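Section: Multi-chain targets

For targets with more than one molecule, the full set of components is provided together so that the structure can be written out for the assembly as a whole rather than chain by chain. Components appear in the order listed by the source. The example entry contains two components.
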Amino acid sequence: MASNNDPFEFREFEDEGNLLDTNRDATTINIEDVKRQTKAAGFDPDADDEYPARSDDREELLSGQKKSAPFWTFEYYQKFFDIETHHVKERILGSLLPWPRKNFIQFYLRKNPDVYGPFWICTTLVFAVFISGNISNFMNGKYNPQFRKVTIAATMIFSYAWFVPLALWGFLLWRNNKILNLVSYSFMEIVCVYGYSLSVYIPAVVLCIVPLEWLKWVTMVVAFGLSGSVLVMTFWPALKEDHPRVAMATVSAIVLLDVLLAVVCKMYFFSTPQPSGAPVAPPTAGQLKANTSSS
Amino acid sequence: MAAEEEASRPFAGLSDVSISEDIPVEGDISVPVGPSRTDEEFSTLDEPVKETILRDLRAVGNKFIHVLYPRRSSALLRDWDLWGPLLLCVTLALLLQDGTADSDLEGGPQFAEVFVVVWFGSIIITLNSKLLGGTLSFFQSLCVLGYCILPLTVAMVVCRVVLLAAPGTVSFVVRLVVVTASFGWSTFASTAFLSDSQPANRRALVVYPVFLFYFVIGWMVLTYFPVKNRQP
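Its structure, encoded as tokens over all components, is:
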């Protein structure tokens, strides 16, 4: 026992048993006892795969990386840019070549959704659509750089990439209140999936410069197929627990909006010229249905 | 008496440096600026206007030279200013006018559209690089991005001259070469300044938006076509 006055000298502490002797009122807790008690109560902290949502929560709490800053600070938004170059490359490749086993959100995002990908893919798509439309109009003989089309393209693509995820997220949240669902996606993850699924349209739109009508339709159909399959494979696990009619309706709504985007882009930006030189008006609803039912 | 006081002070060895309380200190507090300038004080309020304007113009011109010959220097970063980008943006927007005020659908970018693309684009790229963890300040990035439009503005002037001289396929090829070269120059100059402030694993993520920005501006320059030359 130290008896000198120096407060900085190290003192050995006695074993817990001795401490208990000196102070009967103190309580000591053993970590093994705690584990045994919680296992008995039914909450096993070590069983991971039974409830993936719970293990994800635990990972989040233990990793300590997701510090919640208030939304009016800069740091709050910085956590959505916490990615590196190879992450972005992997995510783009994953959306270009969808694989049935690899759910985009669970496999590629891994609880780290980013805003960089969706934002810059949308911006690139806006300018790619505008420039390719210009070039294809030029090759058809009529040169008219309608810069106003950039605004229209931007509105279309950004509202598809941000408002549709908002609606879908709200819908999934509402359904989660009605049925117990273990797979839940946050808003940012849904935005991420939609943003990265648009990346397949960029090469498709560049290919539409070639002035062959059948090639344009084939490219758009292939692009729609790839992006649609990414979306469906991602959202099916969240919907399959639901009432079958609701699930089918949601899936077909997702697919339909994707088709709408592809067809509207094609019609508005890559319209075929008529002999008089004026751009052709969009086809009637009947023709539109015939085209989409063949895809 | 004085010796005992000195021994009890903590810094006893420095007694010869301390000022004794007996001798009063006196003097003037005014800081000497040099020769007495009662008539001409060193303030920019009294200098001739030409001096003021030329000083800023010289600073802008100095930065132009740093953009044209990008070397490792901190002139653009340390003494940032936004006069140069404003001058370049207005010049580019004026040169991109082609006089079609009649119909809304025809024609190239309006003045406001060029302005919005340049400034809004620069702000978004700056925000992007700051969110990815860049070390440049907001206005330094804006300054660099704005000044590096200079090669594309020069290309615009060249394109207009070429179009006046010889419209046709030859002029298109010449314009394509000029615009491509100046686009490459702009991107190279701005990444020389911007990429040092990023960690290595995110450099491509910061450079790509800059590439897209100058590509769009280059596209606007390349597709400029005056109305009277356009096909009906």
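Chain B touches chain A at residues 104-110, 113, 128, 130-133, 201-205, 208-209, 212, 215-216, 219-220, 223, 225, 230-231 (CB under 8 Å).
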